[in-house]
Amino acid sequence: MSRLRDFKLPDLGEGLTEGEILQWMVAVGDEVTLNQPIVEVETAKAAVEVPSPFAGVVTAIHHEAGEVVDVGSVIISFDTEPGAGPLDLVPDPPNAEEGALIGEVGANGRTATLVGYGPKSGPAKRRARVDSPTPVVAEEAPPPETAARVSAAAVGQAAAQSQGAVTVLAKPPVRKLAKELGVDLTTLTGTGTGGVITRADVEAAGSLGSQAIPVAWEPGARERRIPVKGVRKMSAQAMVDSAFTAPHVTEFVTVDVTPTMELVTRLRALPDFADVKVTPLLLVAKALLLAVKRNPEINSTFTDSEIVVKSYVNLGIAAATPRGLLVPNIKDADRLSLVELGRALQDLVETARAGKTAPADMQSGTITITNIGVFGIDTGTPILNPGESAILAFGAVRPTPWVHEGEIAIRQVTQLALSFDHRNVDGALGSQFLADIARVLADPATALAWS
Amino acid sequence: MARERTPETPELREERRVSVTSPAGTEASTPLVQLLTPEGERVHHPLYDVDLTDDDYRSFYRDLVLVRRIDVEATALQRQGELGLWAPLAGQEAAQVGSGRALRPQDFAFPTYREHGVAWCKGVDPLTLLGLFRGASNGGWDPQEKRFNLYTIVIGSQTLHATGYAMGIVKDGAVGDSGGEAVIAYFGDGASSQGDVNEAFVWSAAYHVPIVFFCQNNQWGISTPTSTQSRIPLYKRAEGFGFPGVRVDGNDVLASYAVTRAALDNARTGQGPTLVEAFTYRMGAHTTSDDPTRYRLSSDLEAWKLKDPLERMKSFLFKQQLADAGFIEEVEADADALAARIRKGCLEMPDPDPLSMFDDVYAEQTVLLEEQREELGTYLAGFRA
Amino acid sequence: MMLTLAKALNEGLRAAMERDPKVVLLGEDIGKLGGVFRVTDGLQKDFGEARVFDTPLAESGIVGTAIGLAIRGYRPVCEIQFDGFVYPAYDQIVSQLAKMHARSKGSVAMPVVVRIPYGGGIGAVEHHSESPEAYFVHTAGLKVVSPSNPADAYFMIQQAIASNDPVVFFEPKRRYWEKAEVDTDATAEPLWSSRIARPGTDLTLLAYGPMVKTCLDAAAAAEEEGRSLEVVDLRTVSPIDFATIRDSVRRTRRAVVVHEAPRTVGVGAEIAARLSEELYYEMEAPVLRVTGFDIPYPPSRVEEEYLPDLDRVLHAVDRSLAY
Question: What is the CATH superfamily name and number for domain C2-181?
């Protein structure tokens, strides 16, 4: 410890941050005893005599009478071993943390109160830690004391009645997802820490069709009961909502799509389409997008207060999946080139077939195509996807006797059916829209004419 | 039907004025038991006296000096940031040493938080008291061993504890002769307004317990004068509750000793409670960061300086040739040594281990608390050293 | 033998006083009158006025002098006549009784029991139907228990008196006259543990004091609806026996806490918080609470709508099972 000691103006009580030196009772060179009053300081409240914390000789007085000094500032210095020879006049450098400015924490960090040291400002930075907290998942064994308090018979009975002897570990949001997807948590093995079932576990189970229609018949059973839950339940509800809210009108057109079918073949040969699956559905989709451009009001939603016409097209493609009917959509399909549209369509179909369609993919659709032709069906009266105003059913393409350039010829013919919400889509709009689609498919050069 | 009012004669009015409006703090209106004047003259009182040897007188003086020195040192330590606060007893040394020395070994004292002079008499190391005000503990000594309860910060609460303890003495049959046990409960003029203190008076009277209520009327409850607490001299309260009260000069160590001893003897011999009002003055602040100049006149302070308890005792010793300058110096040297010891002890006092705060909450530890202790222990161990 | 809860307490006090001469009873009107609920009936006659005495009308004095008696080496059992009258004594309980052991680092123990009849449902005027237990559960240094039935009352009062810690002993006054078989020779369960009053599998009802019977009745009614409810009688409210609660809820995966005290920051809130922390991955539903409302206790003509009853409990059970 240095023999040269500084004395800082201490807190003198009740939130004071500074004091005025009224008078010094000692001078440089004076010998001072411990606790001898050395200075009179005026705080906001009173004049206070401050006793010396050191015995020794005053070497320096740092503030004159009349000066206002901050708490924590050095006001006087002492040589505490005056008999020990000459003093090294270079004092210890002040501790950087002990300096005080107005309003800042003082040397001892506190501002006194009537009843104690006073408040301390807390740390402003985190102290470094060696560990990081891990959540406690589950304790394996119940504590032995509890077993003693429950009669053995009671526990046995309770256990036997328990629906699941195994405790399922899953966070509430994951439990909710499982319920929505109709996944039975007790059939899953959790991949989370401690055997916790994660969201991914549930989604994987959902997509693997663990809730596909149970195929097995009880031998000799005359009925079998399939629970309505999960996707099936949701689709059913959606359908009812749609069917009984929007007045559906369906219009039909039969189109000679031979040029489109030829175009499909030619496109497949083009290097641009080398890694793209080109299908008639792709061109139907493109035709629809072009028709939407010409008839923008069809890409809208009817609500009771307003009709919302959208400038973007999220094109839904109805897909039959192991989990049931899903309608994932291609976002901003109107902005995609034919190649991009092809890729998007391919992804969509493959994802749906694998049962991995994400919920986000199925939200915010604006218009839908349902390809019933793959089933060999000519046409139908599709039901609108809720929130949309139009849906196009694309039927099978068949070689059909047709009048072509005035003569009977075998042409590739298909039927298109457009159901629309008659609240905001009138006959003119619906017809015009459907006609535009038909025109592009009948003569693909129309697309160029319209661009 | 309206009751007939007592006719207000001039005599009746004067009687009422004197009894109701006498300022509680006026000595002239209220007799004090005094055995030593401020000038150090011995006076006699018909009801109270002391029978002390020369050594006793010197020893009283020594205790007064040491107690004052503890107080001065602790005040300085607070100013230097070593204590969170200190409750100074400056001016009240005689009341505390006098009453403290009157206690017999079997007697139990219940202090407030300013009775460092009584703690001294009961053998509690002053360094322990510094530990409390430093924040190293909430007490620090074993009350059963010292027969001195821990300091009670809540105003007046301890008077009920003292009463209950005294009820226990009665149940034990340890009352009735000169070997009986007595209890002393300290409190201030401000505390006399607290419900608990008044309940203690009720109960002590109801159960006729061996207790002395020792009120140090130092004229101030922080900044509130006694006149706000009471319209009559405090010692007169006792009569309303059914037991005797007496006012003693609290700056006179001999009178404080004599009156307290008499009251304790009454208690231990089964004569029930007494209220002793020690009339004194709080020369310092309420606690060391209080500023008394805001609420009292320096002229009051000056007047009371003339009644200093140590000065009158020193004068008495010289006048009676019971001590010389050598003795005075010797006592000063003892005081310096004591101050140096407690100063060093204070500066070197370690902070308690944080986990120890879970240790003595209950006689029988709970699972919950053990879990919390472990939680904190693990958390603290997780910091990089 | 068949005893009412009040009589079981009386017998328990008697046994404790016979066992230890340092046990003393103090309170208002407990001596000749035997207490306004007759819980201390006959005890002054048998043990004398030194050990069973009437106090002045001063609740703070009752607890304050009990503290002094405890310092002197006695084991005082205070009675606060009614729940709503404990508040004048609250400072002595919270500032002194609770803290003395810690303050003295164990030199001074407080083997004091504060008995308080509590709870509503007796058609009373103001201040006689309170459930103030949360104020004491929240105070470190105290322990808080509440028996729900005569057998527990008989044993728990003796155990509380034998404890070296201050115990606030809440007696469900609406159950004082309910009778049950009490085997006074049985081995007592530990004081600081909860008990499964009725085993079940679908959901755990957690209750203490007067609400235990309500929950047992609810569980019986639920059985007729094909539901199996487990009822846990907490018994000790501070410290809470989380081991038993956790074990039960881990099995049933659903919990409903029931107490008369108002909802906000009641004991139910603590149990709910703790269960959500410890059984986060296992719970099928959030912990639900059936409680009094956040209002001053209402006039007795509407108290039945305020207090949880069988229907309110089962309504919460329905809600829990719907998750």
Answer: Thiamin diphosphate (ThDP)-binding fold, Pyr/PP domains (3.40.50.970)
